[in-house]
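Morning!

As promised:
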Amino acid sequence: MTANSELTGLTLAQARDALAKGDTTSVELTGAYIDAIATARSLNAFVTETPEKAMEMAKASDARRASGTVGAMEGLPLGIKDLFCTKDVLSTASSHILDGFQPPYESTVTQNLWNAGAVMLGKLNMDEFAMGSSNETSYYGPVANPWRPEGDNRTFVPGGSSGGSASSVAAEIVVAATGTDTGGSIRQPASFTGIVGAKPTYGRCSRFGVVAFASSLDQAGPMTRTVQDAAIMMGSMVGFDPMDSTSVDMPVPDFESALTGDIRGLKIGIPAEYRIDGMPAEIEKLWQQGEAWLRDAGAEIVPISLPHTKYALPAYYIVAPAEASSNLARYDGMRFGLRVDGQDLTETYEKTRAEGFGAEVQRRIMIGTYVLSAGYYDAYYLKAQKVRTLIGQDFEQAFGQVDAILTPTAPSAAFAAGEKSGDPIAMYLNDVFTVPASMAGLPGMSVPAGLSDSGMPLGLQVLAPAFDEMTMFRVGGVLESAAAFSARPNKWWLA
Amino acid sequence: MSLDKDTVRRVARLARIEVAEDRLEVLGQELNQIIGFVEQLDEVDTSSVAPMTSVERQKLRWRADEVTSGGQADKVTANAPSSDMNFFVVPKVVE
């Protein structure tokens, strides 16, 4: 027997190798995580824990291994963001309106992970329908960041929308987690919690069975402790799926083999427009440090311009709510989830949706409805789609000159709970550095790179051309080695 | 452009979300703040730009028009708030 904390202290790659050597079993590893989850309930990272299912899957994994069948994620216990439909297991998108919903099918991404041998520990809390940047909009309550500044007893947000995923990975109560990213929902929480979060190119991960927010932007990806872990896990999430019309039928490279540690001769772009007004000095400093690390590793640093950066966020807040208002029309109280009865059909719809959706989701549905309504469509929606074209062209031109782009992941470290929840625009600005790549469908990852003055984690973002995740991982790996980020949150939740 | 009370009421109706009369004004202010923010886009000249509907260059795939699954009415209705004999039960629609 190995001590529990020793087991949960292993990265995904280390746990994989320990399992392969026979130093531990999936049952032992899964048991250690189930115990760890029970000690960390004050983080509120889980909506649903599935310990029995986890043990069953772990036993089956050990049996497969004994018979010589070993998948790429064999025996590794994961947390799953509650946006993924999991067969016969409550799937809520952290919304009241999906009360009691047990999908009769499995999302393709989670099925791919189970096919690779992974084990499910449970479903992770998130912002309602993935709409938020602090995990404060969940019907199941806010998620706490495992990190707090020294001597500060306030709760800090883990970022969002994949806040439960970020928090559980940082707290080491899952070996890794799935996230989804529409405008930064993997990368921003990864930065806030000192972990790695990677979003592949749009089309790599099937959207089948992932509760839809904004279909032209939604992409799943891994949230892990290391870049290597992210490369391994992403390899088991992606792949062509005929069930998703935007799934791409392209060969999947061995992402892990991208981690050569060698970036000599690569050209790294530094976009001038990401140096925004009011950016804290510590973010600017970290960004320059990142530039120096990559230069020291032999890369060539190239100043670039992405002129429409400033317009990505306002364009996003037209496109995403417009798609959301359409996608969320399906919640009518008739076929699944909550129903609140009214005098007639229309009143039943209206009461169900008023009670079932939280304030932020209602705001976005109404913005989306407004910008798509007769007389406003051209002025708002069509305009935003045209600006989106310009944002895509900016990146295309930049990637004519450089191999990857380095930026900060977020304009600040994690903030205290409640600090920004009253001001939608201040909250939206969290995603100012992540949204442009989402609008262009590009792969991006956040790598933990340092601590803020108050001792909170900060990430740097690596962006790469479409379908060139290999370069993203290659640069991310070098950044990770140079930063040698080894700080961990002190486990206050154990007290 | 700004949303007055009547517009908020109309949008709420279109979105099928019940909003109490005394909430219309506050909600309108919140929505106006967001609309004000997105109107920055007016600064951008898009007169000769085509709209992007998808980041993907690929065309939608063709597939054979054939039944791939079905006959699962029990599963389809299993999550309904109200169902009977594999049918959804809904409020009366036709008078």
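Chain A has a mean pLDDT of 97.

Hope this helps with the figure draft.
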